[in-house]
Amino acid sequence: MQISLAAIKADWRRRPWWMNLLFYFCVYMTFLYMPFDLLLKPVAQDHEIWFGFALTGWSAKATEPLHWLIYGCGAYGFWKMKAWLWPWAAIYVGQVVIAMFVWNLINPNGRGWLAGGVAAAIFMVPLIALWRAKPRFNG
Asked: Rounded CA gap, 46 and 36, in Å?
């Protein structure tokens, strides 16, 4: 199977640049990082963050398949611009916004409410963009 440069350019034009970044991030997480994280990383080094709460060890390892599924669905949904990806991509990024703030408040390595607020504000940008992008997800 040969993929032409024209096909790649056409695919790139299907989404705004910021959505392409999210798409390729999901592809990276699905095919490179999550397989390493789940299959090769030692349990003692595992960390997963959900809503700002850090899971480590076997608790983290047990939730990695859920992260893998989320990124896989994101990669496929952005690739095909599936209608079902809206609002779920925005909801997941909303969880990241909450996580950024909460983690900075409760984690011993966190930097406090100001850093949490700045981090959360940064992730509000893709959250708002995804929420407003409903017309782009047409399947």
From this structure: 11
Q: HEC states along the chain? A: CCCCHHHHHHHHHCCCHHHHHHHHHHHHHHHHHHHHHHHCCCHHHCEEEECCEEEEHHHHHHHHHHHHHHHHHHHHHHHHCCCCHHHHHHHHHHHHHHHHHHHHHHCCCCCHHHHHHHHHHHHHHHHHHHHHCHHHCCC
| Average pLDDT of the chain, as a whole number | 94
The model's pTM: 0.89
pLDDT beyond 80 at 68: yes
